[in-house]
Amino acid sequence: MKSRLVTGSMDSARRTTVLRLCLFCMTVMAARAAIQAPPSSTIEQRFQVALATEDRGDLEGAKRLLIELRRESPGVFAIDESLGLIDVAQGRIDEALPLLEAAGREQPASDAAHANLGGALFKLHRNNEALREFEQAARINPKSVIAQQSLGELWLDAGKPDRATEAYAAALRLKPGDEELTFSYAAALVAGKRYEEATWALTSPATAGQSALAQSLLGEIDEQKGSFESAAQHLTRAVELDPSEENMWALGVEFLRHWTFEAAVKEFAAGRDRYPSSMRMRFGLGAAYFGNGAYARAIPEFSELLKSAPDNAMYAQMLGLSCTAVMRESSPQCALLVSYANAHPQDAENATHAANWLLTDANATQAERLLRTAISRRPDLADAQYGMGVLKQNELDWQGSVGYLERAVALKPEDAQAHYHLALAYWRTGRRADGQREMELHRKYASQEKEQLDQRLRQITTFVVNYR
After folding, report:
1. What's the pLDDT tens digit per position in 238-266?
2. Phi, psi (5° rounding) for residue 177?
3. What confidence category does residue 457 fall into, taking pLDDT thresholds of 50, 70 and 90?
4. Which residue, 170, 181, 343, 465, could crosslink 148 as a Cys pair with Cβ 3.0–4.6 Å?
């Protein structure tokens, strides 16, 4: 008698070298596996009743029958394997694991048993153990496409694209022309930076032009080769074929990476409207607005993100950068910076952003408290020293501002505004020659402000590209 195994599926989101691309699902192997006959015809009949119950969709009913059979006849492969796979189908992987392990011991020569156990281990993120099971399945049955494909997935996940390429190539030899395997093979080649081979693999299938995944991979290849315009064309085609959140994000990031801000705004705005619960779409949109100089439009995006995750330091930093941008924006939504700083006194950088925003609102008392906290934790933070210097000058304490501003320019010599305020302090305290020198430095670095803004944009772009 043969047992029929329940099919379950496992999704594994693959990240290639730059873009995050969703590759193919790894499926728990489903097959009829050879077993020893149950000890009696009565048990065999009851086992068949359990399978029929399962066929009707009554998994709980089938499970009750199989548990009773297992109690009466322990150690039967068909019963343990079927019970385990019902648990897999119901998402109870922890309960399935000991049953599938027992089945593997009961029939160690079954490639299906090893593959199913490997699939369960993969679900539990025990990938090294899953690898061993799939390798054993492939040794038992070298013609198992499922085993080779699963090995490809696991080796790719382990950061060994060359091993993944070998496994996918073996699967393709067994199943030539299979589109899913071809695209997985190409993804492994891309991850291994074997771009020419990947391009050839992707252009050979007749349907590659109609595959969003193929277009995404071709886009990444072009990006890595420096063909940015072609990369954008492929990624745009991927969105046309499949306007998934993943594809729209990848296209927006491609525009943002190369500072094509208007196009990035358009793509991220469309993505946010289509996927309103996607935090990264809002994040990308805020960054695109910032890059385009639309700080007032960036602020609401980052403030909404910080509202949704009040402890997220990156969201607070992005809001702080927007609220204290070169063209300072006054927005009540920036008050979230103060709430964040009060709740996270150890975050000196964001406390400084909050304080500098408070200074634009003439709220000196809160600003001073935050700046003193920031300086005590990070005396090397130039912006905090600068903020305290400006605060002292707002209070007409020119002498008191000198030390803070001197430390600010020592820590950040290219800060034109810090040199300007230090020049004012020197002049007000009778040090005219020093003031003249600082004003000359101000003029020198003011002409380089665009370079400083570009540096900030590169920082923000890096945040977005690395966002998960």
Report:
1. 999 999 999 999 999 999 988 899 999 99
2. 85, -5
3. confident
4. 170
Distances (CA, A) of 251 to 236, 239, 255: 6, 8, 6
Residue 335 structure tokens: 């008050």
Q: How far apart are CA 274 and CA 296, in angstroms?
A: 23
CA 408 to chain centre: 36
Q: Which of 292, 336, 293, 299 lies closest to 318, judged by CA?
A: 299
On whether the CB atoms of residues 117 and 93 are closer than 8 A, the answer is no
31 within 8 A of 154, measured Cβ to Cβ: no
Partner residues linked to 9 by β-bridges: 27
SS3 292: coil
Half-sphere exposure of 434 (CA within 13 A, CB side): 13
- Three-state SS at 310: coil
Alpha helices in 275-363, H assignment, sequence order:
279-291, 295-308, 313-323, 335-343, 348-360
CA distance 382 to 405: 9
> In the structure encoding, which two tokens stand for residue 42, read together?
């009565």
Alpha-carbon gap, residue 283 to 264, rounded angstroms:
12
What is the per-residue pLDDT for 348? 95
pLDDT tens figures, 268-321 = 999 999 999 999 999 999 999 998 888 889 999 999 999 999 999 999 999 998
Q: What percent of the chain has pLDDT over 70?
A: 87
Mean pLDDT over the full length of the chain: 85
| pLDDT-above-90 percentage for the chain | 64
- The position carrying tokens 């039967």 is 76
Structure tokens at 62: 């089938």
Q: How far apart (Å, rounded) are the C-alpha atoms in residues 135 and 122? A: 13
End-to-end CA distance of the chain: 49
